[in-house]
Amino acid sequence: MRVLVVDNNVELCKVLEDYFDTQLDLDVVGMAHDGEEAMSLIQSLEPDVVLLDITMPYLDGLGVMERLQTLGLKKRPKVVVITAFGTDNLLARLMSLGADYFMIKPFQLEILAQRLREFAATSKEVVALEGAAALDTRTSADQTVLRLLHDMGVPPHYKGFSYLKDAVLMYTDEGYFAGGLTKEIYPALAKKYRTTASGVEAAIRNAIVAAWEHGNTGFIRRLCEPYCEERMPTNSLLIAKIAEECLGS
Predict the structure, then answer these.
(1) How many CA atoms lie within 13 A of 2 on its CB side?
(2) Containing H/E element for 27?
(3) Where exactly does CATH 3.40.50.2300 map onto the chain?
(4) Are 168 and 161 within 8 A, CB to CB?
(5) What residues pair up with 78 in beta bridges, in sequence order?
(6) 88-123 b/e with 16+ CB inside 10 Å = b?
(7) What's this model's pTM, rounded to 2 decimal places?
(8) Which CATH architecture has domain 135-248?
(9) C-alpha to C-alpha distances, 137 to 68, 134, 161, 240, 242, nearest whole angstrom
(10) Three-point CA angle 193, 195, 200, nearest 5°
(11) Boundaries of CATH 1.10.10.10 in the chain?
């Protein structure tokens, strides 16, 4: 995956470059420290993904996203926004301009690399680098879950977005029922993300509330019918219904 890093923090760019150099499937093809330079490199380097900061001189991240729509590129790069200013209005504006994912600073490098693979993989070569052919099925499941979460309107910058995705994939892999959610899935996610099981549960709930109140409520109702008409679905119901969609797709 060819990555263009765009951030006015030169030290951070170097840290990202050094870390990505250790990842066989991630290649930093260029670095830009302002939006004007970024526009030039996007056209000349044709990266697969742009890691884009918002606050930059000359042309900010919003300006880059706006201009990106006018370039008429043969292959538009995926855009992963990294920002310390994660206001709902800003992120909504970026999403409307075509941002594919958001990472709020500070972030863990391992999680950033994982999100790049999840949201920006566009070729079978990337999948092949992961290892076994069985990953094709898992990648398809990942993409289905991500599509459903986006269709529901779950804010991608919420922690619960990642927790929901992983919970659904665990559900489809293992077929958890009844108490499996609280007894096995939440603790497993808590260990993975270095938090608590109650924190995982609360984050998933917050993400569902945000989608129900500000996202595509009609889609959620249809997904969870006949169990959910006017009332917001429980964590377990929504996870199970998304898993059913994945298994049926």
Answers:
(1) 13
(2) strand 27-32
(3) 2-130
(4) no
(5) 49
(6) eebbeebbebebbbbbeeeeeeeebbebbbbbbbee
(7) 0.52
(8) Orthogonal Bundle (1.10)
(9) 32, 6, 21, 19, 16
(10) 85
(11) 135-248
Superfamily of domain 2-130: Response regulator (3.40.50.2300)
| CA 6 – CA 228 distance, rounded (Å) | 43
Whether the Cβ atoms of residue 90 and residue 82 lie closer than 8 Å to each other: no
Indicate the DSSP class of residue 75: S
Tokens 């060819």, located at residue: 2
pLDDT along the chain (249 residues), means of 10: 94 92 91 95 94 91 91 87 75 80 82 81 38 42 81 87 87 56 81 89 93 90 78 88 76
DSSP assigned state of 185 = I
**Token pair for 112:** 């950033």
Residue type, 89: N
